[in-house]
Amino acid sequence: MRPTMMGLMVFSGIIGVTLMLSLACGGAAPPAATTAPAATVRPAATTPPAAATQPPAAVACAADARVIGPVGETLKFDKEKLTAKAGSAVTVCFKNISTVNQHNWVLVKQGTKDTVAVAGIAAAATGYVPVSPDVLAKTALVNAGQNGVATFTAPAAGKYQYVCTFPGHNATMFGEFEATTP
User: Fold this and answer.
1) Which CATH fold topology does 82-180 show?
2) Bigger pLDDT: 96 or 37?
3) What is the pTM of this model?
4) What is the secondary structure of 51-119 as a DSSP string?
């Protein structure tokens, strides 16, 4: 049986399509008719500088700090209320005992926690805390297993709110801060 020109073209087309599918699906290209490349010498593996391999420095909590954190992996603070005398120096140490979640602690004017948190969604570069006159004090965004500290002067006597402004956390992760009369 003698192949026809049309049969050869169909056969060549099938081989070409098969080769293209093989290459697209991770098959190896046919070996090229070239000489083997010269051997190359790879540099010895180097160890990065010590500073690059060390975890970030731990933030210590002062002995007189008001310590607060999440309740495990839940989106709740372990304290529903913090107090301080109006005008006093206050240090809040946020101990993020979560093993997976990032959190922050943000003190805001009464009734503004949700507005601040929603505005914070667009503020990823600043730890999800917007620049706002409603924000009175804040920690940085705290990675799991780390601490964050906020040091500030307690506002005028009255009730305020604190909230985690990481997206989605503000619905359940908030509390009350009361500045009492000195």
Assistant:
1) Immunoglobulin-like (2.60.40)
2) 96
3) 0.69
4) HHHSPPPPPPPPTT-EEE-BSTTSSSBS-SEEEEETT-EEEEEEE---SS--B--EEEETT-HHHHHHH
